[in-house]
């Protein structure tokens, strides 16, 4: 070796592998306005489709007259349920085992429901034609409250289910009941609670919200009748599943369907489901033989596609006098809207809600979830969340606070007292999960020290005293959260969507000159996969990340995978990437052995090369090996250097975090100011710290929106009250606070690189942190529970009801 | 529908004469007729700012301007702010400071930031936050966007000082 030989540090740095804050490769096109989002796609002869939507939440459709619309120049077709019925496409299956109307079949069940699909030469003509379609409705009684929906005399919503006493998830006990899903030991839980020294009981409502990515949903469907090929470009978080569903619905063989997710302008769960717009665009393209584009507008998006949450969670938690939790009981009334279109793994109609024992060692617990139909939009998607984990985290983190009040104990101390200890992992929870790893006490202590928790409590006490003396009108809230997530769905043995196991995949091709392409079954919507997956590979195979192209989202070229949601990309596809990389390395080792004329067992891997053990000057770099793979006839080894891995994770991963929010609240105006927000995340091995930090900032801001103002609310006759960005709160840069991020690192023991996923943690942990801060500010005045969102008006009302306005 | 109107626009330095219906929105003309797909539609009610462009030296939401109102105007879109060979300081700074994720808000955000720095070359963090409050981002939480804009301002001012 000589001075020109790069040091190991220099070689590692050149790879830009794991742990590097590598700049994103996606940014060049986005910063220049050269992204390729679905609405940017133009095809020759392309038509536009749009919906006539119901103004009523519940009504019979007596007739549809589209003659005037059809007569308008530029209108090509108007589709109604009657047109789709012969194809059996007027209804479609949902991901949750229910079915959903594609176009109104005899009645409408929520405001904004799709009634007819107009196809025209451009969007303006579409809009004109929609005005000309005459629909004769007969209004029916509306029910938007899930408790009222279950009353004996409640209006019958789903007439198509008449007489069906069981559904996809077991017995239905009422005409508006979907399922009761239960887990845990109810009688043992009740016994523990009845015998307990202290019991706290509370109804915790997690209101209905909407993921509202900046880009709405849309697609371009193009049936090429010459080749018999259907191509669908769309905002799909799970393109391969969309292809399979499209094939099953249309009868077109799967190899003749190509589904492509181009650049996606944020997803957050909104783009997981299959929507009537996709079905209608495909049918319209088949009928007209032309490409058909459908793009939602913002009102369509907020009114009709994929809400999230809407869980009424009735909790009972018990403890000893000194604060050891002895049992947890939870019953949820889950408002699923008009159709059960939740996007959960098939066997979990309430998602992973039963992670609701959280970070705590709770000996016995029970969860029961009743799904209910109402006259509201369908959905129930995981809004930046892994299948109802957000609801679960909010529930337990509120219950802990309520219990702390009941005990007269500090909420931080109560948490620490009940955390699962480091030596208890892997930990089997009372509700059936095996937590893979964790070190909660370390994270908690670090967080409390970072914010000077004791100092904050002193300041708060002084503030309350000053308030009572009339010296200030501002209160101080300290919002605590320690959350545990469950992500990375999931093991094929118990996780599937429409029967497809929730594995994921990666296929790698090394080029002769030592660069590579890897394709995955996932799809980025802003997470930066093209950047981070190349980093995983760089570390595994020793080629620079800058020499590795990552491709996703085209079902003709990418290997089958279940897509990106539920923080599953890193835990599942990231694992597949590492495993495929290891297959490449195994073959590379044999090639290197042949080149170096040694036994492959005499070689060892060193950053970017195989080195002969004990003779570091004898080596072959991965680049040399790639060249040899294509240029040498090596006995017993096929030419080329490629690998594919389908990864079936043995378990979920369990990221966790400790968040503290310090909030000033003005008692007279109900306004708030987040003075400090500290977020410590433990997502195991960190692939790209810059991207992790960005994900945390973004997730916390979505949490801020949800906790402090965002909601999808309905009036008594089912009008959606928040269907524009005027009424639906999205924080601007002014309302958004500054965040401090931090981390501990507890690698997942079963993941090939120890990574756990982080994209959703800040939303899961952020919502209870903000909400607890509001509650904590009023704790001294007796506030136990106030439902979100905590907008100015509602905070003012809290103060008013507590008698703080004099 | 109305009779089409003759409209003249100068966009990113290029003159265009086109026919558009009186009701056609500027964003539609830019995206569909001039194939400038950098400006995006996120709401079409002037709340999100994804469609932000510069018109006659002002930041404008092109979803709420009729093309007819823009007749005779000089317009700059994200496509006119830099080229692959010479990215603007702001474009580089957004990448450097991770000021974008899905990229959907980015063209509008950078176009707005560009005008903001013309109006106020040395803004405080608070002024930046207020100055971009017409542009929503669902991904980043703004912290790195603000950082990127402040850093760009510093770079531009540093270069100016060095030149003086
Ligand atoms: S699309 Fe113009 S402001 Fe949202
Ligand atoms: S980067 Fe996605 S909306 Fe801003």
Structure notes:
The complex is a heterodimer of chains A (806) and B (164). The model of chain A has no long low-confidence stretch (mean pLDDT 95). In chain A, a hairpin with a 5-residue loop joins strand 17 and strand 18 (325-337). In chain A, helix 11 runs parallel beside helix 19, helix 15 (529-541) packs parallel to helix 16 and helix 16 (569-596) crosses helix 17 (622-631). In chain A, strands 3-7-1-16-13-14-15 form a seven-stranded mixed β-sheet, sandwiched between helices. In chain A, strands 11, 12, 17, 18, 19 and 20 form a six-stranded mixed β-sheet that branches. Chain A contains 20 helices and 35 strands. In chain A, 28% of the residues lie in helices and 26% in strands. Chain B folds into two domains: 5-80, Roll (Ubiquitin-like (UB roll)), CATH 3.10.20; 89-163, DNA polymerase, domain 1, CATH 1.10.150.120. Chain B has five helices and five strands. Chain B has a five-stranded mixed β-sheet with strand order 2-1-5-3-4, with helices on one face. The mean pLDDT of chain B is 96. Chains A and B meet through helix 2, helix 5 and helix 18 of A and helix 1, helix 2, helix 3, helix 4 and helix 5 of B. Bound molecules: FE2/S2 (inorganic) cluster (2 copies). One FE2/S2 (inorganic) cluster (FES) is lined by residues 41-44, 46-51, 61, 63 of chain B.
Attribute tags:
heterodimer; A: 806 residues; alpha+beta; Aldehyde Oxidoreductase, domain 4; seven-stranded mixed beta sheet; B: 164 residues; Ubiquitin-like (UB roll); DNA polymerase, domain 1; 2 domains; 15% strand; binds FE2/S2 (inorganic) cluster
The CATH superfamily of the largest domain in chain A bears the name Aldehyde oxidase/xanthine dehydrogenase, molybdopterin binding domain
Beta-sheet strand percentage of chain A? 25-35%
**Number of distinct beta strands of chain A:** 35
The low-confidence runs of chain B, each spanning 5 or more residues with pLDDT under 50, are none
Task: Provide a count of the helices of chain B.
Answer: 5
């Amino acid at each position: 070796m000589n001075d020109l030989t790069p040091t190991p540090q220099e070689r590692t740095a050149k790879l830009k592998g794991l742990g590097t804050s590598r700049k994103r490769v996606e940014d060049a096109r986005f910063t220049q306005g050269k992204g390729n989002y679905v609405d940017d796609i133009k095809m020759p002869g392309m038509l536009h489709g749009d919906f006539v939507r119901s103004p009523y939440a519940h009504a019979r459709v007596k007739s549809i007259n589209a003659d005037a619309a059809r007569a308008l120049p530029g209108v090509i077709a108007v589709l109604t349920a009657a047109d789709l019925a012969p194809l059996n496409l007027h209804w479609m299956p949902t991901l949750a085992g229910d079915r959903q109307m594609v176009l109104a079949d005899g009645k409408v069940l929520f405001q904004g429901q799709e009634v007819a699909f107009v196809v025209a030469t451009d969007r303006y003509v579409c809009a004109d034609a929609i005005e000309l379609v005459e629909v004769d409705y007969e209004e029916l009684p509306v029910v938007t409250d899930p408790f009222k929906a279950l009353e004996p005399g409640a209006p019958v919503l789903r007439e198509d289910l008449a007489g069906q006493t069981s559904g996809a998830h077991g017995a239905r006990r009422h005409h508006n009941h979907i399922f009761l899903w239960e887990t845990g030991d109810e009688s043992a839980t009740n016994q523990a609670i009845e015998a307990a020294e202290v019991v706290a009981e509370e109804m915790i409502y997690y209101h209905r919200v909407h993921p509202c990515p900046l880009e709405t949903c849309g697609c371009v469907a193009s049936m090429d009748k010459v080749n018999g090929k259907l191509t669908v470009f769309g905002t799909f978080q799970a393109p391969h599943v969309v292809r399979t569903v499209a094939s099953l619905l249309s009868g077109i063989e799967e190899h003749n369907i190509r589904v492509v997710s181009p650049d996606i302008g944020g997803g957050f769960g909104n783009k997981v489901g299959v929507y009537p717009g996709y079905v209608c665009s495909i049918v319209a393209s088949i009928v007209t033989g032309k490409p058909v584009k459908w793009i939602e507008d913002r009102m369509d998006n907020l009114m009709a596609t994929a809400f999230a949450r809407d869980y009424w969670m009735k909790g009972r938690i018990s403890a000893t006098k000194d604060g050891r939790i002895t049992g947890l009981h939870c019953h949820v009334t889950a408002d699923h809207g008009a159709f059960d279109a939740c996007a959960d793994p098939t066997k979990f109609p309430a998602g992973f809600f039963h992670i609701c024992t959280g970070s705590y060692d709770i000996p016995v617990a029970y969860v029961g979830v009743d799904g209910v139909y109402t006259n509201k939009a369908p959905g129930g998607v995981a809004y930046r969340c892994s299948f109802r984990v957000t609801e679960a985290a909010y529930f337990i983190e509120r219950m802990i606070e309520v219990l702390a009040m009941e005990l007269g104990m500090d909420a931080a101390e109560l948490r620490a007292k009940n955390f699962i200890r480091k030596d208890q992992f892997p930990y089997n929870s009372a509700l059936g999960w095996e937590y893979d790893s964790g070190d909660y006490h370390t994270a908690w202590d670090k967080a409390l020290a970072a914010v000077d928790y004791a100092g904050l409590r002193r300041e708060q006490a002084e503030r309350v005293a000053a308030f009572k003396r009339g010296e200030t009108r501002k209160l101080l809230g300290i919002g605590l959260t320690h959350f545990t997530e469950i992500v990375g769905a999931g093991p094929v043995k118990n996780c599937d969507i429409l029967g497809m196991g929730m594995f994921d995949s990666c296929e790698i091709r090394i080029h002769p000159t030592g660069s590579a392409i890897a394709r995955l079954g996932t799809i980025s919507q802003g997470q930066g996969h093209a950047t981070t997956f190349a980093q995983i590979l760089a570390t595994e195979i020793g080629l620079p990340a800058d020499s590795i192209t990552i491709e996703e989202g085209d079902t003709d070229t990418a290997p089958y995978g279940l897509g990106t949601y539920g923080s599953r990309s890193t835990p599942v596809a990231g694992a597949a990437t590492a495993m495929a990389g290891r297959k490449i390395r195994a073959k590379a080792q044999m090639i290197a052995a042949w080149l170096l004329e040694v036994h492959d067992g005499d070689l060892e891997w060193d950053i970017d090369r195989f080195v002969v053990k004990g003779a570091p000057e004898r080596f072959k770099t991965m680049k040399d090996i790639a060249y040899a793979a294509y240029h040498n006839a090596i006995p017993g080894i096929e030419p080329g250097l490629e690998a594919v891995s389908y990864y079936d994770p043995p378990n979920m991963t369990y990221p966790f975090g400790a968040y503290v929010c310090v909030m000033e609240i003005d008692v007279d105006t109900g306004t708030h100011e987040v003075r400090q927000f500290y977020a410590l995340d433990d997502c195991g091995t960190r692939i790209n710290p810059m991207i992790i930090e960005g994900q945390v900032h973004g997730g916390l801001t979505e949490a801020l929106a949800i906790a402090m103002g965002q909601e999808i609310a309905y009036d008594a006759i089912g009008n959606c009250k928040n269907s524009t960005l005027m009424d639906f709160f999205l924080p601007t840069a002014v309302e958004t606070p500054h965040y401090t991020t931090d981390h501990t690192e507890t690698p997942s023991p079963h993941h090939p690189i120890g990574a756990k996923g982080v994209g959703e943690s800040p939303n899961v942990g952020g919502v209870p942190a903000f909400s607890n801060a509001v509650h904590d500010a009023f704790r001294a005045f007796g506030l136990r529970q106030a439902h979100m969102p905590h907008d100015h008006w509602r905070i003012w009302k809290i103060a008013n009801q507590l008698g703080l306005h004099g | 529908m109305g009779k089409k109107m003759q409209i003249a626009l100068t966009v990113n330095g290029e003159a265009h004469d086109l026919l558009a219906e009186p009701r056609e929105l500027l964003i539609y003309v830019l995206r569909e007729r001039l194939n400038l797909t950098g400006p995006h539609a996120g709401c079409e009610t002037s709340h999100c700012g994804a469609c932000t462009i510069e018109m006659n030296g002002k930041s404008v939401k092109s979803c709420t301007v009729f093309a007819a109102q823009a007749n005779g105007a000089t317009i700059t879109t994200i496509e006119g702010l830099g080229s692959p060979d010479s990215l603007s300081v702001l474009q580089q700074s957004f990448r450097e400071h991770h000021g974008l994720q899905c990229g959907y808000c980015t063209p509008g955000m950078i176009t707005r930031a560009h005008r903001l720095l013309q109006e106020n070359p040395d803004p405080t963090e608070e002024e930046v936050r207020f100055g971009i409050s017409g542009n929503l981002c669902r991904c980043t939480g703004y912290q790195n966007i603000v950082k990127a804009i402040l850093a760009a301002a510093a770079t531009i001012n540093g270069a100016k000082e060095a030149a003086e």
